[in-house]
Structure formats: structure tokens, C-alpha cells
Amino acid sequence: MKPSSAKAMEETHAAISDVVSIREQTTFQRMMTSQAFWVAAALLALVIFMTWLEPSFGTADNVTNITRNFAPLAIMSLGMTVVIITGGIDLSVGSVMGLVAIVTGLLLTGHHSWYVAFAAGLLAGLACGAFNGFFVAYIGMPSFVVTLGMLSIARSLAVVLSGNQMLYQFGPDAPIVRAIGQAKWPLHAPASWAPRWFPELSSHFWVMVIIALILGAIFIFTAWARHLYAIGSNENAARLTGVSVDWIKFQAYVFSSFTASIASLLLLGYSGSAINAMGTGYELRVIAGTVIGGANLMGGYGTAFGAVIGSAFLEVIRNALLMAGIDSNWQGAFVGMFIVIAVLLGMQTSGTSLVATIREWVAWKRS
Length: 367
What we know:
This protein is mainly α. About 75% of the residues lie in helices and about 0% in strands.
């Protein structure tokens, strides 16, 4: 046998042994190597510390505020996770939010029914996702380029359609729209059964829980999810095994825009107005939450739980900084630092040892 062939066989055997070792891991071992688990542990420690440092941090009102703020980001992160698993990225989600809000606001201002306006907003969002998916999946353009273009197109359309004006006169269905965005459950007594110490959780939070549970079940039980992971791990291999790669990638971008549309409608209902600047800068926060939750930017890995916990972590950090009296302008620095830490942690837990990477870098510098 030739030396090169022997080396190739050794590498093949090593790869198989790696896979077998992963399959043989217990639930506890998988949990201990999960980035989302350690982010959840860090989040719990941060909440306990902040509650001890600033008692008002742990009040029901502040918990209500935190959960309402991070829920729209988490909803969008769930869609972003699906895209990232395929090895792509969606930079247009923030602009899609703005366009959906303006389309919905225009129809409400024209005294159309709330469900007609919401349906039109959703269709506008889905059209953006279809545009992204078509050019990425069927034309083969890089997702970074296509979604960056949609970021600009959707924001420009929102500005043109709105005439650069805020829309807030929503007609006869305005109370229904506000009720959708401002609803809470459970309410404190005597209106409902919840005691004062229990937070009143917003409709944003409950929608996030429902979507996360559905997507989590899809990730665990469906062949569609296995195809997603296969595409992100090795797209060519997935094609050879008969996976409908183009169609599934198309669906991933449509789903990402769908979640951005849902988040937009909830925020529109909460604020009672539609502005074309809605969602500005959200794309980076959504990507940050997804990566901190453990999704691999190279594709092949991501979880619904990680998307939610990563988004919650970012919001708790932001809230803690405000409570601690630190200038909010430092928020970006902290978010960037945690993204770097999360990626380093992901390298450690996904098989690419951080220590080994540092050793290789030191050896390369010495050579």
C-alpha cells in the first residue's frame, strides 16, 4: 500500500472514530459540550449577581421588561438559525421589519381590516425572503451579497412608501392592533390570578415560546431538519445523497423573513405606530444572539434553544449595564466582546480545540 493511501485511510478512520464518539455521548456529555448550556449557566449567574447588586433588577416589572425586549430578537434569531445552519447568513432581517411595518401601517391608515393589513405585511416579508432564497439557492450568489442588497432595497422601499413619515392613525381597528402587541398573560390579581411577584409576560414572549417549541420539535424529529444540517455540513455530499438542496435553502430564507415579519407586527402593535426606521441595526444583534447561542457560522449546527438563550443573554447584558449606571454607548463593545468569546467557546466545544489552535499558531510563528 502506498504511504499516501495509508495516510488517507488513517484520516478516514479518525473521522469515523470521531463520529462514533459523538454518537456514543450520553445526554449529560452532550449537554456539557453544548455552548448554549454554558451560556445559560452564565446567564443564570449574571441574573443572580445583578439581583444581589441591584434588588430592582429581579423585580417582576423588570423581568416583564426584559422578556418583552428580547422576545422579538429571539423570534428573528430562530429564523436566522435556520439560515446559518445551511451555511448562509441573512443581513436583511432588520430592513424587512421596516418594510413589513410600513406596508401594514399604510393599509391600517387606509382603514382596512387588521387581518388584511397583517396579511399584506406578511406577504411583503415573504416576498423579500423569496427574493433572497431564489438568488442564493437557484442562482448561486453568495448570501452575504444578496441579503446585503435586500437590506438596502427593503429599507429604501419603506422610506418611499411611507413618504418618510410616521404612520400612527390606524383607523377603526387600531385598538385590536394595540391589543395584539400589548397583551400580557397572566395578569396580576385582582384582574387575574397572578401574584405581584410573578411577571406579566407579553404577547411577544408567548409567540416566541410557541415558535421556539415548534422549531425545536422540527429540529429533533423531522427529515427536513436533518437535510438542513447535511447541507450546512457538506452541501455537495447532501446533493449526492438526493437532498433537495436548492429548495430547502430557498425555504430557509423565506422562514427567516417570516420570523422578521412576525417580530415587526408585534412591535408595531406594541408601539401603536409604524416607522420606516424600525429594525435598523437589528441584523447585527440577531446574528450576535444566534452565534452566542452556539450556531456555527460555517454551517451545520444550531439549535432553537441556543437562539433564545443567546438573545436573552444580550438583553440581560444591556439591562444590567443600564442598571449599573454604565453608559449605554458601551453596549456595542460588550456585545462584540461576547461574540468573540462565544466563537472561541464554540471552537472549543465543536471539536476544534482552542488550545490546539493556539499551539498551531505559536508553532507557525516559530517556523
